[in-house]
Amino acid sequence: MIIKNGKTIHLQGKNISYVIFENDEGDLLHFHFGKKLADRDYSLMTSEWAEEWGFATNEVPLDVYAQEYPSYGHSDLRNPSYQIINKYGNAVSQMKVTEYKIHHGTTADVCGMPCLFKGSQSADTLEVILYDSAVDFEVHLYYTVFDEYDIIARNALLVNKSDTPIEIMSAYSASLDLPIGDYDMIHFAGAWGREREMIRTPLQLGVKVEAENARGGSGHQMNPFAMICSRDADETHGEVYGLSLIYSGNHSTAAKIDQFGGLRVLQGINPFCFKWDLKQNKSFYTPQSVICYSGEGFGKMSREYHDVYRNNLMRSEFTKKPRPILINNWEGTYFDFTEEKLLSMAKRAKEAGIELFVLDDGWFGKRNNDRSSLGDWTVNTEKLPSGIDGLAKKINDIGLKFGLWFEPEMISPDSELYRKHPNWAVKVNERNPVEIRHQLILDLSRDEVCDYVINAVSNILKTANIEYVKWDMNRQMTDMMRGGYNHEYTLGYYKVMSAITEAFPNVLFEGCSAGGGRFDSGVLAYMPQIWTSDNSDAVSRLKIQYSTSMCYPVYSISSHVTASPNHQVGRITALKARGDVAYMGTFGYELDITKASNTEFEEIKQQIEFEKQIRPLMCDGDLYRLQNLYEGNYCSWEIISKDKKQVFVFASRVLAVAQSKNPRLKLQGLDYGKQYRDTQTGEIYGGDFLMHRGIKINYKTEDFATEVRLLEMC
Ligand code: GLA
User: How far is the CA of 240 from the centre of ligand 1 (A)?
Assistant: First the structure.
């Protein structure tokens, strides 16, 4: 809901208020983002505007005021939310409010990038128009608020109204000025196989902390999601501000405590290597930043993001539906497969209760290793004599759905496509392009290249009964053809994704980028699940999945049981541990199931039966993280249905301890007065007991011990 009271504009969510107003000079000031305030005209409380900074009037420089979309070159000397080189060739800019508009609904889809849509919720959008009359430059700020959530979704539109082209040097999506306090920033950094490590840094006076990535995709190295929190914040307590950028290219979230102790946080496209020429009367949209406030720790914030993204971002009709249990042949065969081998795996998979067979890399062109053929999306009939359509039929006859891997944004220098269109690859004229994994990137800034990709993938999808696609992207971007190229590419990527996912709504798409190198909310808008990491080791996955769930819904986290010893880290773990960890997310197998012993096969059958019982919870349930491996030896989580009737609990102890004193596991979010039955043991517990006394977990005396429970209200 958006309330206008005098000069005050008050955006109210379920439990939050976001309050702004302009001063007498027309500067747009920020007043409050946090717990809900009553409806008042806060613009009258001039003595409160600058708080402890000691200034009480607006005759002083803007440096002391909290702002909404700060500009550069006047009396606010903190980092600005945008920078342009204006028509006179300098970077000075100052915006004054000219108009406010309130729209019912959201701004979805106007900007060529995914944004939140209204869905069945109640959404309103505030548009504030700011104008710099000295240089004829306009900014429109959009703020969407939902009655049902504690989030504000922000983006900006920059318009050149002058008669001369100008340059945008940076344009963040959101700027948030928070009052004096002790803040920590939590960011999610890593590497291939070690994605999204949760790292907490105390913010200190004068030091800018920037969580950024400039490697092309959103990246293994830094996720476009970060949190600012009070120093005492944890899963269940404290103030937390989440910032999630709906974007799959280079990004930045930067925080700096200013000289007076206030905090400015900026989130948006990474200014590094960014420059956008804006011709007369042209405009530029920033991606959308979804900022969330929780007064009750990280857990509450995560549940907000999960609900918003499931209900108002993810377009796939599979988003809230149980997903098929899959088997993927990659770690089972790598490139070395025949049709016969695949069919033998599929038959055994069917006997185990698996529902979808996915053929990974190596089915097209002459691709028997990673050195060739990307771009040549025609089946290799030497390997697969019945073609993809014939194979799909045979897999369907076995009783499984069929899915296929693509890496459509890429081109191998050794490919028919490259021989025909060498200039379709991203490269600069004066140099040989950098190859990573022996491949180059297709130039998606060009319409003809996007059309090629759309047609190549569509042709295969039309000719065979393919019900699932794994959409991979296995390299980082070098050879940037011009400043801002990464953004042009990202817009092309969204255009391709929109076209294909709209044309094939019945296909379940899974995103991937050398594991979890592009795990972001931009991708989720099109593909409801993402391969979380190429590291499928159960112990490594504890932290990876725990951190990923901070922002992204449980069912978007794709998680497979693979062979032991693990192929990425060599660790030996029990099949039980691998299954128990993989239940969090979209569950599947990625191993040669024909090699499973009878005992293992029986265990796999049981895992699948259990997964079929718990998967409705993954679609829409609420996640509670109970024990944090970053702080000790235990990691556990719980997923409970919205009606609180079913509860899935996962608990793990990483290293065995003699005479261990395992802490009792206190569940959360249950119905206090109701009884819950443990479906395995038949034991009945009260909701009060499960939450306030907690259950005893008797781990086996071994390393990497895990336990799962399914409790049902009775
Ligand atoms: C990437 C993916 C893997 C697999 C291979 C195939 O590394 O993350 O899951 O699909 O590509 O080449």
Answer: 35
